[in-house]
Amino acid sequence: MPRLTKDETHPVRFTLNGRPVSVRAYPRALLTDALRHEIGATGTHVGCEHGVCGACTVQVDGEPARACLMLARQAEGCEIRTVEGLNNKDALSPLQEAFREHFALQCGFCTAGILMSLDALFSPQPDAEEDAIREALSGHLCRCTGYAPIVQAALAARNRIKGGPIDA
Amino acid sequence: MKDTVSEKLLGQSALRVEDPALLSGRGRYIDDLPVAAGTLALAFVRSPHGHAAIRSVDTAEAAQATGVVAVITGEDVAARTRSMTVGVKADVECWPMAVDRVRYVGEPVAMIVATDRYLAEDAADLVVVDYAMLDAVVEPVAALAADAPVLHTSLGSNLINERRFRYGDPEAEFDAAPHRIGIDVTYPRSACTPIETYGVIASYEPGEDAYDVTSNFQGPFSIHAVVARSLNVPGNRLRLRTPPDSGGSFGIKQGVFPYMILAAIAARIAGAPVKWIEDRLEHLSASVSATNRQTRIEAAVTADGRITALDWDQIEDCGAHLRAPEPATLYRMHGNMTGAYDIPNMAIRNRVVLTNKTPTGLNRGFGGPQIYFALERLMDTIARHLGLDRLEVIRRNLIPAEAFPYRTASGALYDSGDYVAALDRAVEEGGLAELYARRDKARAAGRRYGIGFACVVEPSVSNMGYITTVLTPEERAKAGPKNGAQATSTISIDPLGSVTVKVASVPQGQGHRTVLAQVVADKFGLPIDTVRVLADVDTMRDAWSIASGNYASRFAPAVAGATEIAAARLRDKLAKVAASQLNIAPDDVIFEAGRIGAAGNSDNSLSFARAAATAHWSPGTLPEGVDQTMRETVYWTPPELEAPTAEDGVNSSLCHGFIFDFCGIEIDPETAEPRIDRYVTMHDCGRILHPAMVDGQVRGGFAQAVGAAFLEEYAYGPDGSFRSGTLADYLLPTVMEVPDPVILHHETLSPFTPLGAKGVGEGNCMSTPVCIANAVADALAPEGDAPEIVLPVTAAKLAPLIFGDEPAPQEPVSETKTEDTAGGRKLTGEGRAVVQASREDVWRMLLDPATLDAIIPGSHGVRKVGETRFEADVTLGVGPVRGRYKADIDLSDLDPPNAVTLSGQAVGALGTGGGQGRITLTDTEDGTEIAYRYEAQIGGKVASVGGRLLDGAAKVVIGEFFRALARHCGGGASSGALARLRSLVDRVIKGGRS
Ligand code: FES
Ligand code: FES
């Protein structure tokens, strides 16, 4: 890895939702800031910047990760997927659709992170049990919904996804 | 005009128009909005102390730092603003930034404007503030003591307001009643803290002396006046805007307003727009919280459990400043202090005190949790005391259905309700009998299981005049009456005939836009997706008034109501336009499926768009008496919201919903962990406009109440240090802690609102904490007196009640202890080490700066500044929280070469530390034994975010010091001695020898 100097920006290249992107970032810049403020992908939210709330969850090489606990630099060469990548063109994915139908969001601030965690759960495990769903959700704080509708939506989405590929 | 098509959408759970964007990452929250080129970042320097005088603020180094455009102090702010309005008559000032004294941890002391947030925060660490520590007071009762430290010297004490109220003849009732039953209640501090923090974008145009502020503020817009006054400009020079989306608020984002003032001033001084996004530590320590309150409540009770009088004594803790609209938390419930009960006599004593904690403000349930916790714990106590069934005591006191509209003792006019019917239905449909059976079974098996009840009247649509109840009738007469609750709504139809609705309701996730689309689509017979709704605010362009905003559960009753009225007016107009074109009477016009036509003759109709467009394209063809304005703005205020009377009666809210909750709670026999087995909540919120959203509000409020009941507390040390600065310290409930409650509804329409709806968002924050507490009390003590229940009910609090106090250990198990004292979070410990050097050598080393430099962990240099004084630069850290400190070290009580006392003070951007240690040296066979005993205190940011880790960290740091000393002395030691030394060092690190 090239040596980075603290007062200079350096290029960071990764794939964002399937498209190659390149940003210049200071070595200490957080991935959340690079995504939101350099690239303009503001769908990923920031609720605590210390790894507890889960709002900033994105997928790094298919695994859910807290973007607020990553430096932008650490994304070099990775495949990053964010909420903006969930849609199927202009249409909602089955998971997003289920969230809408079950009123599983109110302010929507926690939602992107939750969707990314559930998507990462269902991708390899389309028939995840309710316990696994709750486990995945337990890393997220939602202050609006009381969680029950989120669990309902996840269960409904699972049943729909089971029938076909997740991105269908 | 026939009303054949309306009410089709209303009452259904339409899909939310907000959701496609929010689910796809296309929301537009404050931090997502585009900003003007050249916008700078703002960061704050905040007080690490609960109470201290500011001797000086040195900004020189910060001003030189990379990227810094301006460094602004409290004096700079004060020079350009006026003190913020305080809601009571008191000789006190309220500045958004500390000037000569800090009064709570997190209080802004200076701000940095820089080219980016990282650089601004770097520079914030370089501002040097010299504080003179003052004693702090954090408990409201202690704050009233004659010798308590006084926060605002101009006030002379910490009591900023006191009022006594008397309704009916309470003294006579208390004299006559066979029972006088009372309890003391401590309600702690918590907040419905949203996941999105505060944000402000501000700019200043000197040519017009005008500020432009965008913030995720939630209202009430009466605060616009407070901000404009403080900025010293007329209202039209403060343009206040809100972003289209907001990441939750629950009252909290009312408290962003001091930061609007600060950001506006920063923009003015920097000569460029500035933006500030609060971080989580700032939010938890210094945004806003609910009040904590100490209450004594007593009831005069007849033998059969009827309450004839209440006597309240409330001490409200509003934190360090009485910030607008406080003390509103104390007065919002003033009209409904008798709750759901028919109690004609009441005395109230209200005191508002200031303490070294964050100023308080709006918070979901606003004032309700505090009073209902007291009232419903009292109901429970009365039943226990009289040996009566708890539900029976509740039932006997409920306001009867035929009494509505019902005027309470303190002046509220309850609009509608059938409390007994709602309660009976809940008992039946919620399965209370089954719950009793579960309790019996659990108890028979020796388990601790309890059932709790709570009855609550949920007020909504606040009377903007209620807060003036804090003034005496004479003061009110002088100031002029205040009352009402204006809601605004504008509907316009464009030249293509499509409908736009504009309200000033500033939703934070409640789906306002969907519900208004339903209301208007119904009225016009249009499909819901043809109506567009905007709910964010621009004070320069929109219709708004002081009551605008999203609080006091006013949306469904007031804003949706105002929209209904505006839609009806436009519909009347359109009916006339269409009638003249269709050659029928306006009364025979119907609106259906996008067309306006003759009732009973579907052929005779024209499209809605065509009728609406007439006014734009050919106003000359409109019928007599119909004007061409296709835009209707309604300002609605209910006449029932009158100003407080000369007798202090106040109708504090327009609507009064009803909630009856019961729940079963089991306490784990081994861990004392309480767990909700079943929770039933019955609501009467008048007409339900959108069932799924109503249930969403109930569930959301319930989850927050579960947090308040079991987890959440803003923890302060006795010195005012703040101990819950991360979401790992201030615990919010997760999916694992929140059960799904059984939600039931009983609808009695409000006669006072256009749609018959009442508010619903806050009720469970009022009912659930006390319902849970009552169940816990029942689990702990099925009969007789119950122990005092103080929230949050944690296993740690329940364990001693169940298992008795933990026996004191026979011998101290560990050498390190943590204790909360008036001096802060205190760590004490002791240890020993044996080193291969003579006493004289060790003594010399301890007094030698070079040696100290080598052995102090993280030292960057030690300077001798006096015979026995040293200065050091050290880097210390707990986990990732690492900071540089300046330390002053003093040696005293020197007894060479036997003993010395070492005291140190360290100050850094991350906080403060201080300690004292006595070191004694004694000869041993092959060297010197060093024994030490220390006491250390830690405060500031590091205590807020690292409290959990401090004890261990202190032990390690002190251990490291002696290990280094041993290494330093041990040069040339034999290998055997080295091994011995190592084992000694190990012991030192493990806490020394007992
Ligand atoms: S913002 Fe990353 S976990 Fe909260
Ligand atoms: S929807 Fe608001 S925090 Fe989850």
TrEMBL record, chain A:
It comes from Roseivivax halotolerans. InterPro entries: 2Fe-2S-bd, 2Fe-2S-bd_dom_sf, 2Fe-2S_ferredoxin-like_sf, 2Fe-2S_ferredoxin-type, 2Fe2S_fd_BS, Beta-grasp_dom_sf, Diverse_Oxidoreductases. PANTHER family: OXIDOREDUCTASE WITH IRON-SULFUR SUBUNIT (PTHR44379). This is 2-furoyl-CoA dehydrogenase 2Fe-2S iron sulfur subunit. Residues 10-86 form the 2Fe-2S ferredoxin-type domain. The keyword Transferase does not apply. Keywords: 2Fe-2S, Iron, Iron-sulfur, Metal-binding, Oxidoreductase. GO terms for molecular function: 2 iron, 2 sulfur cluster binding; metal ion binding; oxidoreductase activity. The keyword Oxidoreductase applies.
Automatic annotation (TrEMBL), chain B:
The keyword Oxidoreductase applies. It comes from the Bacteria. Residues 805-825 are annotated as: Disordered. Keywords: Molybdenum, Oxidoreductase. GO terms for molecular function: iron ion binding; oxidoreductase activity. Residues 814-825 have a biased composition (Basic and acidic residues). Pfam families: Ald_Xan_dh_C, COXG, MoCoBD_1, MoCoBD_2. Residues 24-135 form the Aldehyde oxidase/xanthine dehydrogenase a/b hammerhead domain. This is 2-furoyl-CoA dehydrogenase large subunit. It comes from Roseivivax halotolerans.
